[in-house]
Structure formats: structure tokens, C-alpha cells
Amino acid sequence: MNKTVLNPLNIRWLGKVSYTDALALQNALFEEGSENHLLLLEHQHVFTLGVRGEKGNILVDPSTMGAELVKTNRGGDVTYHGPGQLVGYPILSLPGKRGGGMADTVEYVRSVEDLIISALGQLGLPNCGRLQKYPGVWVDPNKRDARKIAAVGVRLTRGRTMHGFALNVKPDMSYFDAIVPCGIKDKSVTSLSEEGLEISMLEVVNTVSELATERWGSGQSRRMDVSWRTSQNELSPFSRGKGPGGIPKVNQNIEELDPNKRTVTIGRKSAREKRAEVAIERKPDWIRVKADMGPKYRELKKSMRTLELTTVCEEAGCPNIFECWGQGTATFMALGERCTRACGFCLVDTRKPEKIDAGEPKRIATAVKQMGLEYAVITMVARDDLTDGGASHIIEIINEVRSANPGTKVEVLISDLKGNPDDLQKIFSAKPDVLNHNIETIPRLQRQVRPSASYARSLAVLAHAKRAGMVVKSSIMVGLGESEEEMHDTLKDLKEIGVDIVTIGQYLRPTMNHLPVQRWWTPKEFRELKMFGEAQGIPHIESSPLTRSSYHAKDAETTAMSKVVSVTSGSSS
User: Fold this and answer.
1) What's the distance, CA 288 to chain centroid?
2) CA–CA distances in Å: residue 44 to residues 21, 113, 452
3) 243 within some domain
4) What is the tens place of the pLDDT at every residue in 34-69?
5) Does residue 545 sit within a domain?
């Protein structure tokens, strides 16, 4: 199979990803996406059982080995995935046989096998190929001691593919002793390392990516990688537990440096770099906020104090607080004012969380009623210390707000809840009008910006929400070192999993111990990001220097839903 799919191929190296998260992402790209993708990753320890798999081929209880067992809809029997194994999931649109009809599954499987055989040859293991009557890729297939080095299991439905391959680079081979791999009892399993080749995962990913680009992307691809390695020194002092630090101070007498030479590094800085950091912290005119503490602002602030409520407007230092509070709107922050994570951009307190306030749901509902809100936004701190991540508490807030305010729409901005599908489903079942989870930044910067989260998991949360029928929203910051091309590709990722609303705003450094601002995006660039994303198919994008995730939330939901309804009505006619 040569050059049979549309180009370019979107290649994503996602690092270590749970099988549940990867499956959710696959399902979203399969069901919502229209482009072609190759997800490359490593799984945490997991055994997967295909549609024709036999439980008798699982010899040891997976839980005793720190692994889980997942039944899946791919072909094949039982196999193992874990660290040191490169897993590839091509999500491709394939043409039918001879240009029409159903796509050829056998031909596609051979295409996957051919790619792996070619990659192994380039990596220094040329004696690989197919073994008659056995799927996958084998070392010395014509010899008595043929050894399986890569498993292949796919699903091809309506001309679109899921699942893929698992290539053993340097996994813990003892896990294969717990199963009959692929149901083959008389053959052994091997790896590049077992065959005497000590090759880095990066080299394997690069080789596979190049060959996949030629085979499935007609020579064109767009690749983004999460960070391969991030040292502690690359994290902000805040993320390293150093505390918030002082508010950024700007020396107005320092001359502005050449924008092309103002690269700010994290960690040990030279005198020139320190001068550059101070210079770049000087806000341009379009990012300056005028404090307007009018009567509505003062009234709302008094109400919040009286009801002992916390707002993200205050805790996160939102630049729109005067505008929003002046209009009588606010975003409530639930589950206390302390977060269990220490993201490099966020001002929220990271000390040990306090006990959940059982009275908070009713007080938020009362505040919504007193303010006469038609649209309430509830956000939450990450509470990894709680069994369900705080999902039950958020549900209680949604129910209380709706009970006291029947006509009020509710948007919730949630943490990733550690990707737990059951906890996520709890919140989905409460049917918030909008489900918001922020991706925050491009893949390359995820580790620096939010070291306790992951790009793949956030996409998976959004994918779970979309599959549950939610109106789905996410947010991205700029100014942390991302390129325009990376922003375009990230917006395309959000579009491909079915996100309905995206907000884009300028990162503002809250204190000197947080990540520095790398550059200021101009209003024109924000408008261009909005035009690009909506041209790709995202129903609504709110994009400006001062935009935050809940900015103009009501209007964004109304606009997005009108576009979704319009598209749906048009497609059904």
C-alpha cells in the first residue's frame, strides 16, 4: 500500500500515556476527525485482549504485576504494552479496493507490517519479515527459532482505521511470561535490546515517523512532540516548591532589546539574560488593564466576602476582573482555594488542601441567585488528595445552582481527575451546559507549564466529554515560547477531537517565581489565530490578549451552539 491517504500526516509523540487515555483519544479522532494521524507513545503496564482473544491465554492475574487488563475492539488475542515499547496508532482514511467500495483490511495490515520491517532494517536489524499464518513482524522468520518483535492489531471500519502496532524496543520482557502473546504458544518474543541493539526510543520514533510520512502522508507530515526529557532546573521555581515570589518589577530605564535576541531561559541565568527578562516583562499598551472599582465591583466583592466564597477572578489574578465584576459576573472557584498541583503559570495557593466545605454548594447557589446570573461558571482546583478528585462536590454544586436558579445555564471548568473515566462520567451525568477543560499550551511546553498534567490526558478528557454529548470547551495561553505553527497544529488537534469552543489569551506572569513571558502576541496575531481555528472547523474561538477561559462565556456558548445547530441542520437536509 503506497501513498493511499491524504497528506499531510499529523504525527504526535505523546510520551507515556495510559491505555484508557489513548483509547479515548483514538475514538475521538476516529469519530470526529477528518485528517490522518499517527499517535506514537509508550503505555503504562497493561494487557489488552482483542475481540477474538481467549482469557485462558492470560496466565497470571495482571494486578499482581502492577498492570491492568483491558478488553478492546481490535483484532487479535492478548498482548502486553508497557514502558520501553513503542506503540503506534494510525488513524487513517483509506480508499476502497480498486478505488471504490470497502477498504482492504489485509492490504492495510501488510502496510503496517511493511513499515515496521523497513524501520527495523534502517535501525540495524535487517533479518525481519512475516511468518506465514502468524500476524506481526518476526526476527529470522525463515528459521526454527523465529521470534516476534512487533505485534499488529487493527480495526478498519467505514474506511477509517484504529489501533495499530507495538514494537519492542527495550521493555521488561518478564511481562510477556504472564501471557501467551497473541495466543501463539510455540513461539517466543524478542526486542531490539534482546537482539543486541541498544537504540534510544527517540531514534526509533524518528525512523518510524520518516517512513510513515512517506507511506501514509505522501511525503508530508506535521509533527509535534511532548518534551522528551525535562530536568528540574527547567521547571519554574514555583513548580519546584519555592513559593510564589514577588510581583514582577520592571525597570523602566532599561532599553528594550532586539526581539530576536530576547530569549529567556529557565534555571541559571547570565546578566544579559536577566536584563532581557526584565525588559520583556514590560507590558505593551494593549495588555495594560485599567482598575475600575465601580459600585457593581464593590457590591459583588462584598457579596463574595459575606458568603465566604472564593473566585478564580481573584485567586488567579485575572486581568478582566474589573470588567466582569463591573458587569455583575464572576467565576466561582470550588473545593477551596488550595490546589494539589503547582503549575508554572498559576497563582493559586499550593499548600496542603483543607477539608471540603459542605456548605459551599448552597452558598454558590445563593450568590448566583443574588447576582441574577443567567450563566454561571464553576471552576475547580485540582484535588488529587480526594478519592474522586472532587467530582461529587462539583455535581452537588451543579444541582444546587439549578435548584435555586432553574433558568441558569452552568459551565464547569474541571481538572483532568487523573483521567478516571468513572469520575468524569459522574460530572457528565449532571449535564452541565458546557464542559471546560484547559489544554493550556502546546505539546512541547506541557511539562514546563504544568508538570503534573499531560497533553494526551487533557485531549482524552475532552474526548470523553464529547463522546458523552457535552458542549466541549478548552483554553490555550500564548507567550510561553510557542510558535505560530505549533499553535496552528494544537488548534487542529482540538478541532479533530470535536472541541466546540476555544479561548486564547496572553500569559501574564503572576510573580517572579513563575514562568517568564517569552513574548507578547499582538492583537492582530490573536485575530489571525481566531480566523485560522474557525476556518479549520472549530465553531467558536474567543481570542484576544486579555481573554481567559471564562471570558464572555455566555456569548461563546450561544455562538458555538448556533453554529453547531446550523451545521447539523444543514447536514440532515
Assistant:
1) 31
2) 11, 24, 16
3) no
4) 999 999 999 999 999 988 889 899 999 999 999 999
5) yes
